[in-house]
Every structure is written in structure tokens, then in C-alpha cells.
């Protein structure tokens, strides 16, 4: 049977199928004068995770003085111990936090599932939980959608998603689904700078051509449609207009990327070259922040559990035990907490490297670190202990962070999700609650 003049083929509405509905376009604020330029400087947030907790020998243990993760002293009068001494030069830019965790996961039967809820605060029960909830990094990036080329950078040393029992990503979307983390250094670099490549520009041109076809066809169709169908077509074209904005946004970042040549880096590094790999990850995050390619990043240094692909990272830096063994055997031998503390020391050295890069980069009336919050922690304290997460918050002096102190909270009265709300607020997200937050203002940490 021949088609009537008013009948529509499904392919009419799929002609632009190569175009994805994505970020709404937002015009950059005009910069007028130095003060206005300073006010318009971007704010950033980085969320970093390491597995299996930290070395916490008891006060009676001779290893306590050097290898206890939390610092000596309290308040402004604190000093890092041996395992964290790489951070001492930056203590005025850092807050160390104890006494926070996720209440719903404090009694979890398997502490190794806790990283899945680390940035969400959702209760994760092995074998029962099927979906997570949105992670705080994605709540922030969703609010700022369209202001940068990449909405966020989900990174991990393993890459991918893993599963709810052993996650390989820290980032979860609004539907609670894991966002695959990026681990290949070359691919991350290409994601950052692809918008200005000839191939990317050709794709943009093709997308614009497809939209022109759709609009031309729609104009012809509209003459032969009834009032109800015309309304349906108008709704479709309203969605197409969002694609136009996305293309305009992509063109903006392509032009911006072309104006600044990408930094030359050695990206031929496998994660078994542990220090160089982790530092290159930090370098990529630094470049993405500096170039305003993204304002939100997550990085999972390693995964929980003895079967994780990253479990042997500690052996790659000269320790005799894998990460899982370090945590489980610390209390069983004379030097067990020191061995674990040496891994803590290594993690601290890499964080210090990242903080230094940010602090040494001048920006406006201060440094990049002043407008970047770096949150690092684990989802356990001692092995399989789901309380008192070891947490560090660095930078953000121009974002309201009252840095330079060691704060201990009452775990029965507070929750980590309250801190997430304040971090989001510091990124200008008007979030009033998140996960199981209780509305505590965390005024000791944020002004």
C-alpha cells in the first residue's frame, strides 16, 4: 500500500540518530575588569579513594608513634606522623577529619562493599542491593552541566564499573548505575583534547548537516499534518533545538582547545609502574582543571579485596605483601603496622605531589589550590571496620574551607554525607540534603 502524504516514516525522526541529547548550552559570563575576572574563576572538586583503610596501631604498640595514620595534636595544633609526613609542608591547606562515616554501612557484613557507597552514602548490602544512588560528584557535575567540555572525569586505576560488591568506579548516575571509569592514560588524554582534533571538527560539521536536513523535512511535513500532529512535531523540534545547543557548545570547546596546544606527556605507562602511573593520573586531572576542561573528577587508586587487579600495587613499590595482606596481617607481626604504614606513606606522597602542583600554579589572587577542593579517604578505618573513615580535605580557601586543622567528630551525631552537602555548596550547588545527611552545617570546616 502506498504511503499517504501525511504519513511519517520512523526514519524521519532517526535521521539525526548520531547526535546525542546531552549538555544544555550555557553562555560564558562576560569578564569585565580584574575583580570580575577573579570572581569568575572556576571552582573545582576532586574526590580520591584508596582501599582497605589505614595503619592504626594501638597506643601501646611501639609502632603507634610513627605509623598511626591520624596526626598528633588537635585543632590548629597538629602535625602529621611518619606515614603522612609528605603532607606536612601543606598542613595549612589541609583539614584532617576523623569520626565520620556512613551510618547505614557501619554494620555492613562485608566491608569490601563499602567503596560502592563511598560517594553516595547509600546502604550497600552484598547480594541484596541492586542499584546505588547518585554520587556526590555527579550531583555537582549535573548542576554545572554545559559549562565545561567534560561534565566530569571518572578515573580509576582498573577502569570500567566492576559490580556492587567490588566497584571499579566511584561515580554513579542519577539512576544509581555505575559510570565506567577511565584508566587508559592515552584515552583519557584524547577525551580531554579530542574536541579540537580534525576528526572531531568533521563530526561537528556532519551533525550540523543532519540538523539542517531534519529542519527542512519538518518544514515540508508540517504543511500536511493535522493540529495534533503539528503539536507532536513541535515537541520533537524542541528536543532538536537542544541538539543545536549541544553542537554550539562543542564548537565552543573546539575553538577553545585549538587556542591552547595540549601539553606533551608520556602516556605509555602501565599501572604496574605505580608511582608514575598515579602521578600521570594526577597530572591529567591538573591539566583538566587548569584548562577548564572539567571541574569535577574522581579517582580510585585501587580496589578493595584480595582478588582486585590492583591488589599487587604494594608489591610493585617494593613491599613484600599485597594490599589485602597488609591490612589483614598488620596486627599479627612485629612490623606489620609499619609495612601497612609504608603503603600509607606512598599514598600520601602522591597526594602531596598533586597538592603541590595545584598550589604552585598561580591563579587570580592566589593559587589553583585555593579554588579546588581535594577530598581523599577510604571506606574503612582498620581492616573491615566501617567507622571513623580516614579523611583529608585540602585546598578550597576561596571556597569557604577553613583549612589547617585536625577535627574529630562524634560519629553518633554526624555523618559523612553532611560534609558532602557542604562540598557541593562550596561548588555553588544549592544542595540542602544528600543521601542520609541530617542537616548539620559542618561550620567548623566551612565558613
Task: Tell me what the structure shows.
- By secondary structure, the chain is α/β, with parallel strands linked by helices.
- 34% of the residues lie in helices and 10% in strands.
- It is built from eleven helices and eleven strands.
- The chain has helices at 33-39, 64-67, 136-143, 185-193, 198-222, 227-259, 274-290, 313-316, 323-329, 336-360, 416-426; strands spanning 44-49, 72-74, 77-79, 94-98, 153-156, 296-300, 362-363, 366-367, 372-377, 391-395, 405-408.
- The strands form three sheets. A seven-stranded mixed sheet has the order 5-6-1-9-10-4-11, with helices on both faces. Strands 2-3 form a two-stranded antiparallel ribbon.
- α4 (185-193) runs parallel beside α7 (274-290), α5 runs antiparallel to α6 (227-259) and α9 (323-329) crosses α10.
- The longest helix is centred in the middle third of the chain and has 33 residues, at 227-259.
Question: How would you describe this structure in keywords?
Answer:
single chain, two-stranded antiparallel sheet, 447 residues, 10% strand, globular, alpha/beta, Alkaline Phosphatase, subunit A, disordered N terminus
